[in-house]
Write a structure and sequence with these properties.
The protein has 731 residues and is an alpha+beta fold. The chain folds into six domains: 108 residues, Immunoglobulin-like (Sandwich); 143 residues, Sandwich (Immunoglobulin-like), CATH 2.60.40; 116 residues, no CATH class; 77 residues, no CATH class; 82 residues, no CATH class; 132 residues, Glutaredoxin (3-Layer(aba) Sandwich). The protein contains 24 helices and 28 strands. A hairpin with a 4-residue loop joins strand 6 and strand 7. Helix 4 packs across helix 6 and helix 15 runs antiparallel to helix 16.
């Protein structure tokens, strides 16, 4: 967590005396809970505002010298004279308690000024009363009255668990004020069968109300994010075809933000629920939290047997807490099923996460202590029964948002002898071409040439180690050419081959080889005659996720892969069959579309207007995103060569939340000099997330000459191919 900072100038000693005009101030709204005003003291010489600060122990805060107070009625600004408890512009390290007090002294204010705004960077307190009176609150809602108006009986357990229909989500943010600096929030729902996690930007009305319809595939969780200074994310339970009403409390949001900074348990105590699933959410809101386990650290430090004991012990404690909660209250049966699903999916997630990080360690940190013990199939034994159960309520678990990905790429089939294999087609890498034109080869090179000639034109399935070994063995043409003075011949070879339709091996090309072997291994492991539902859903989501960004494969090839999966019973559930066919039908039906004439379109049109008539690549990124920075830095040479391209422009788009101002300015001054960059407000960035369904960054969108959107989910490595289809060649 990067430290918040407030900067101010001045000295630690105050020459002013504050005798009789001391009040405990109320305020209309605040963007932060890190600092809270505790007192206002006024004299003829100065105005003193005292604050209580809460932040992570042994981290620093800093009050900025640009901080000021303002009389909103006259827009008169007052800069600080001095401080007590810290020094303006200097780092103040928080004590072990994580709490401290300080004061900022400003010039005296006119007698008639009864309220001010305190402005310090993103920390803003509006309507701070100087007279001790209660401050009026915007969007003030009576929680009890709201609850009575929105209370509904739960309609009963869904008769059809898997069902695509809209969940209608509506609510209000109590204490919302437009001065808080946002006018929308993001809602995410992760479809466990397609892997789609499309964000929806929900407009916030002046009274804090909001409403949206979300297509869901089964009962489960969605999340609302972008709330508060720490961009708090909140998860709630919903069901297809049913309603959920939520009354959020802004003070709760701020408190939760602080609790997360301080790494302590937090509950939105003042949240209220209504609608069809309100009853279930009320009970879930009071349910035990899943234990926070640092699986990544465990994968480095703990051998598999030890790690498994820790994971199982934590899960048992979690289940015991759930059982105590069940025994203490008369809970609805659906609440109980969802809590059980939360515990079960949490166990699966932690076990698969450990295995994923363990594999990373074996590749990138070979000295990790955990690697002293091999990870075998026994490690996954505790979740075998869950895989075999076919319990549909598992899909209602909160951790299902990440599980399809974890299951699809887990090591279970590898350990069962169904290792994933990569197709390698033996083609000339230039060795035979140079030899035919008189190049002299060393005995080793002659051996490689003969080895290649025997296999030319054939395809072999290899594990990744053998795959890269084969490539490395054949990547010797450049050395042969240089030694023989035949660089021109090699350039000729490269040119001839680049003009052929040569594409990378796609997932769809080899899925038919790997998928049946791996699915069959998992089925046998679970003791089933058919592929477990969890594996079916993960495989379905894997194909859909890949297809989202690689839909360039011929339609008949893609559907051949889908049909192969269905014919071989890798996907056999009728709902999943319908889901995957619909997904690809929609994907291939995609047509370029005009930028909409709404707030989303307004944000985008302003950015692309200077480059009318060019193809434009939008790069959505953030300074806090490692893969984003890596991609930008790897593409530096390509971008510099094409900086003044007559037919192409690249635009980099980030937001305040993903790129703090100081980090943003520093990064672009080093890596994006002279390029088109935009740092948007979080609200405007959310609008573009909604428009292009950006669930994560980096993300790339291609705009055509005519201003129409050509590709919403372009892979950057496919950029040259995508442009060449329109006659544009990058340098």
């Amino acid at each position: 967590m990067k430290p918040f900072f407030i900067s101010l100038i001045g000295c630690m000693i105050s020459p002013w005396a504050f005798a009789d005009r001391h009040v405990t101030p109320d305020y209309e709204c605040s963007t932060t809970a890190v600092i809270t005003p505790t007192a206002v003291e006024r004299s003829e010489d100065a105005t003193k505002i005292s604050f209580h600060a809460v932040y992570r122990p042994n981290f620093w805060i800093k009050v900025d010298s640009t901080a000021y107070i303002v009389n909103p009625k006259t827009d008169t600004h007052y800069s600080p004279l001095s401080t007590e408890g810290l020094v303006l512009g200097e780092e103040f390290w928080m004590p072990e308690s994580g709490e401290t007090d300080f004061s900022v002294i400003f010039p005296p204010l006119p007698e008639e000024v009864d309220a001010i705004d305190f402005i310090e960077g993103t920390w803003r307190i509006f309507g701070l009363r100087l007279d001790g009176k209660k401050a009026p609150k915007a969007a003030d809602v009576d929680p009890e009255k709201w609850t009575k108006e929105h209370e509904r009986d739960y309609p009963g357990e869904p008769s059809q668990f898997f069902n695509t229909a809209d969940a209608k989500i509506s609510g209000q943010i109590r204490g919302y004020d437009s001065r808080l600096g946002f006018d929308n929030i993001l809602l995410y729902y992760s479809n466990p069968f397609t892997g789609k996690r499309d964000p929806v930007a929900i407009p916030i009305m002046a009274d804090g109300s909001f409403s949206v319809s979300v297509p869901m595939a089964s009962p489960g969780y969605f999340s609302i994010s972008g709330l508060g200074p720490e961009y708090v994310s909140l998860s709630y339970y919903a069901e297809p075809g049913r309603t959920l009403d939520i009354l959020l409390d802004w003070d709760d949001v701020l408190q939760t933000s602080i609790d997360r900074i301080m790494e302590r348990e937090s509950r939105m105590a003042n949240t209220r629920f209504g609608g069809d699933t309100g009853h279930i959410n009320r009970e879930l809101a009071a349910a035990p939290f899943a234990p926070a386990i640092s699986v990544h650290s465990m994968a480095h430090d703990s051998v598999p047997a030890t790690a498994l004991k820790i994971i199982l012990a934590d899960n048992e404690r979690y289940k015991a807490a759930i059982d105590r909660y069940k025994g203490s209250y008369d809970l609805h049966p659906v609440t109980k099923k969802v809590m059980d699903a939360n515990a079960d999916t949490d166990l699966i997630h932690n076990i698969l996460d450990y295995a994923m990080y363990y594999d990373d360690m074996s590749r990138f940190d070979t000295a990790a202590p955990s690697l002293n013990e091999p990870l075998g199939i026994d490690f996954f034994e505790p979740v075998k029964g869950l895989f075999a159960s076919g319990n549909p309520w598992l899909f209602a678990g909160e951790r299902m948002d990440m599980l399809p990905n974890r299951i699809a790429f887990c090591r279970i089939p590898d350990l069962l002898g169904a290792k994933e294999m990569q197709p390698f087609t033996y083609t000339d890498f230039g060795i035979l071409y140079l030899k035919e034109r008189g190049a002299k080869l060393t005995p080793e090179e002659e051996e490689t040439a003969a080895w290649l000639a025997e296999r030319l034109g054939t395809t072999e399935y290899m594990d990744m180690t053998d795959f890269f070994n084969a490539i490395n063995r054949l990547n010797i043409a450049e050395g042969i050419a240089k030694r023989n003075g035949m660089e021109d011949f090699l350039e000729e070879f490269v040119k001839i081959n680049s003009e052929k339709t040569v594409t990378d091996e796609k997932k769809f090309d080899y899925e038919g080889y790997n998928a049946p072997r791996r699915a069959d291994a998992v089925a046998k492991w679970t003791g089933l005659d058919s592929v477990p539902l969890l594996w079916q859903s993960a495989y379905c989501a894997s194909l859909c996720s890949y297809g989202k960004t690689n839909i360039s494969a011929p339609r008949e090839e893609t559907f051949a892969t889908v049909n192969h999966a269905i014919e071989n019973k890798i996907i056999s559930h009728p709902y999943l069959i319908r889901i995957i066919n619909t997904f690809f039908e929609d994907a291939y039906a995609f047509q370029p579309y005009a930028i909409p004439d709404d707030n989303r379109g307004r944000v985008l049109r302003e950015m692309i207007a200077p480059y009318s008539g060019k193809f434009i690549l939008l790069d959505f990124w953030g300074t806090s995103c490692g893969p984003c920075r890596s991609a930008i830095e790897r593409s530096s040479e390509l971008r510099q060569r094409n900086l003044d391209h007559p037919d192409f422009k690249m635009i980099f788009i980030t937001c305040e939340g993903d790129s703090p101002e100081e980090a943003y300015n520093k990064y672009i001054s080093k890596n994006l000099v002279g390029e088109a960059t935009h740092r948007l407000s979080n609200s405007d960035f959310n609008r573009l997330r909604d428009l292009f369904k950006i669930s994560g960054i980096p993300s790339y969108v291609l705009i055509g000459r005519d201003g129409k959107v050509l590709n919403e989910h372009l892979n950057f490595h496919s950029l040259s191919d995508a442009l060449s289809e329109h006659g544009v060649i990058l340098k």
